[in-house]
Amino acid sequence: MLGCAALSNVARQAAAVATLSMFIVPMCVEFGWSRAEFSGAVSLGALLGVLAAPFAGPLFDRYGSRLLLVVSALVVAACSLALAATQSLVGFYIAFGISRLMFSAPFDIGTSAVVAKWFVRRRARAMALLSVAIGLGLAVLPPMAQLAISQYGWRAGWVALAGVVLLVGVIPQWLLLVRQPEDAGLKPDGGPGARDERSRDTQEVAYTAAEAFSTPALWLLMVYTLLVFPVQSGFSLHQAPHLVERGLSPGTAAAVVSAFSLAAAAASLGFGLLRAPARFSLCAGALLMACGAILMQSVHDAALAFAAAITFGAGIGALLTMLPVAWANYFGRAHFGAIRGITLPAQVAGQALGPFLAGGLRDATGDYGAGLALFAGLSALAAAVAAFARPPDARLR
Fold this sequence. Notes:
Elements (H helix, E strand, L loop, with lengths): L1 H11 L4 H15 L3 H29 L2 H19 L4 H30 L4 H30 L1 H16 L1 H6 L32 H4 L3 H30 L4 H25 L3 H20 L4 H30 L4 H30 L3 H19 L10
Helix pairs in contact: 1-5, 1-6, 1-7, 2-6, 2-10, 3-5, 3-14, 4-5, 4-7, 5-6, 5-14, 6-7, 6-11, 6-13, 10-11, 10-12, 10-13, 10-14, 10-15, 11-13, 12-13, 12-15, 14-15
């Protein structure tokens, strides 16, 4: 189950902003688009995800992840092929907006729901491995797209991404995924014979969506989400063009993006194994993102670019692993899809805002310095919010 969800996370990265960043320069040069115009496609897809998430969440609780993840992968592959044939900004917005919709809602809920429903005691470790797949996907897909772009043009880059999505995002999930362990006569974490790894941070609770919304913890996690995800998406999309503008070659910029992704993967595993309270890991992740944004402001050579990307990537690893763990640990797995469906719009809205802010500030000022300063401030504020996001159940504190 975890392997299928991990492969879906790899396929999902065809619509990631870090992958899209490989296409900014060649597509903007060919069509004459501004960075803000290009970034608008990300924002459109995220806003569509805001509308879809409340409806998608309960579907995962009821029907499971198998069908919905397969359909999502098929849609992303079809959109990638449409992007390869695009001739206008409107066509680009439609194709990438739909692809990003799949990324923002069904993929996000579906992959984390697999882990939330199949693991309780080992949830943090499983979620860490799931997040490692995000980092590995981002370490592979952007350089692969850049290689295809450098050899055959940006349209070939989109075709290559479509092929990867079909290969890893459809067949394993269709053949193997099961909604929850009880459907197969099993129990979470390997059944009653599994080694007991129960800790105070992984005891199972069961909140309904209405009960969850009456807790301060939910609102603090949503504020944290609104603050930190503009940083995640804005940095991810614009780091490659920022590095090119600072004098690095496109190939070196792609290598830095891969280092960023590998750092995120390594940190995902590290934070998952750390077994610290989720709120402290989220606080640490936001502080690492703030430091990475500050370092990226000063980039003038490859060494500093790698240092900034690795620091920021480590923060992303903490975010991508421990935020889903916090949602599942704080409120339980019984209504996980419904709760995430209602709360996910905060994340998607943040991801919609980040690229537009970074692109707009770059167009207005001529570089990415102002955007990076803003991102550092938002991350620092998010760290403070995370420190106060205690679990609603006193047993978990």
